[in-house]
Write a structure and sequence with these properties.
This protein is mostly beta strands and 251 residues long. Helix content is 7%, strand content 36%. It has three domains: 107 residues, RNA-binding S4 domain (Structural Genomics Hypothetical 15.5 Kd Protein In mrcA-pckA Intergenic Region, Chain A, Roll); 57 residues, OB fold (Dihydrolipoamide Acetyltransferase, E2P) (Beta Barrel), CATH 2.40.50.740; 51 residues, SH3 type barrels, CATH 2.30.30.30. The strands form five sheets. The chain has a five-stranded antiparallel β-sheet, with no helix packed on it. A five-stranded antiparallel β-sheet has the order 12-11-10-13-14, with no helix packed on it. A five-stranded antiparallel β-sheet has the order 18-17-16-15-19, with no helix packed on it.
């Protein structure tokens, strides 16, 4: 009889390279369920609690923590060990009072930056697609799978693909927006320069077979060029989220 649905297990050797797991310590690890992030760009809650934070040693302990309803992702309780968490997600553990934001790490992977209660109340999301829906309203699809409608009183021309929105979580109310333009502060989320942050000094938009590029200048004055779709704006003149934290945890 043929299998129905996807596999529920994943061997450690072919798991994504950025997962901080011991490849030969056991045979299987958790498989990501369909969710807001792609497998190559996320980690599961089980890996986050067990391998990264060290709050658990076994899957049974992971499930016990999640079933206690103490783990929140973007303001919502999550109880599935295989739930994917990725860039800009806000992780909160009520019992310990820890709050983190996931950001891309240099050389690949994700890192946890410790944040305060005020910063845990909002999230930055990049606009991936725009479309008109019945009723003549603009719908914006964000990088984490969210779909939000254009707020009353705002015009569609104010928002463009690859711009960043600042929204509350979990209510999804729009606070502010940050366009991808020269002078904006951004972080690279993919490619060989992943994890590098800095100010955008040039945006070259090309059509056809030539890819559009963005040039960033980091705080040390070094310049890096990357593809347009790899850039995630995090603020206008300065970053709106903490990019470093004292005593932070790195995935």
């Amino acid at each position: 009889m043929a299998r129905r649905g996807q596999k529920k297990h994943l061997k450690r050797l072919p798991a994504p390279k950025h997962w901080p797991i011991k490849r030969k310590h056991g045979k299987f690890t958790t498989r990501v369920i369909p969710g807001p992030h792609r497998k190559e760009e996320c980690v599961t809650l089980a890996i986050l609690l067990r391998e990264i934070l060290g709050h658990a040693e076994t899957m049974r302990e992971v499930k016990s923590i999640l079933n206690s309803r103490q783990v929140f992702v973007d303001g919502r309780v999550r109880r599935e060990p295989r739930f994917p968490v990725g860039v800009m997600d806000v992780i909160e553990i009520k019992s310990s009072g820890d709050r983190f934001r996931l950001l891309p790490k240099t050389r690949g992977g994700l890192r946890l930056v410790r944040i305060d209660e005020d910063e845990a109340a909002f999230k930055l999301c990049r606009i991936e697609k725009k479309m008109m829906v019945p009723g003549g309203r603009l719908q914006m699809t964000l990088h984490d799978g969210r779909n939000i409608l254009l707020p009353e009183g705002r015009t569609p021309s104010e928002f463009h693909t690859l711009d960043t929105l600042k929204i509350t979580v979990p209510e999804q109310k729009l606070i502010d927006s940050y366009p991808l333009k020269e002078g904006a502060y951004a972080i690279i989320t993919q490619g060989k320069n992943i994890g590098i942050e800095g100010r955008i000094v040039a945006v070259e938009r090309r059509f056809g077979t030539h890819a559009s590029t963005v040039t960033l200048e980091d705080p040390s004055g070094n310049r890096f060029q990357t593809a347009l779709e790899y850039v995630f704006v995090v603020g206008n003149d300065r970053p709106e989220v903490a990019l470093e934290s004292a005593g932070g945890v790195t995935a």
